[in-house]
Design brief:
Elements: H1 11-19, E1 25-26, H2 27-37, H3 46-58, E2 62-68, E3 74-80, H4 82-108
Antiparallel strand pairs: 1-3, 2-3
Domain Transcription regulator PadR N-terminal: 16-89
Protein name: Transcriptional regulator
Pfam families: PadR
Length: 109
């Protein structure tokens, strides 16, 4: 993420898991989709993206396999696992609680 758009720790993982619900994507396609869905507000740097992908793969929340990208380059395509779908559901619930709490503070003060 760019410095001005840094997110809470773990939020990038949530965004990656959510983007992968629509099917396998390679790393740059994941970053592009986050940017598109956020109306160009969130930009995921490669220096943050690839460690997050490796961490999620290590947790068995995603899997990766080699394939060919749309520009005929070899790329790793990441897919959500069953455990990843369960984790996403948990993380979405946590995010909803956190964002409601922050919203409550912002509106109360």
């Amino acid at each position: 993420m760019t410095r001005s758009n840094e997110l809470l720790q773990g939020t990038l993982d949530l965004l990656i898991l959510k983007v992968l619900t629509t099917g396998p994507r390679h790393g740059l396609a994941i970053a592009d989709r986050v940017r598109q869905l956020s109306d160009d507000v969130l930009r995921v740097n490669q220096s943050a993206l690839y460690p997050a992908l490796h961490r999620l793969e290590h947790q068995a929340w995603i899997t990766a396999e080699w394939g060919e990208s749309e520009n005929n380059r070899r790329a790793r395509f990441y897919s959500l696992t069953k455990a990843g779908r369960a984790r996403l559901k948990t993380e979405e619930q946590s995010w909803d609680r956190l964002s409601a709490a922050v919203h409550g503070v912002l509106k109360a003060v």
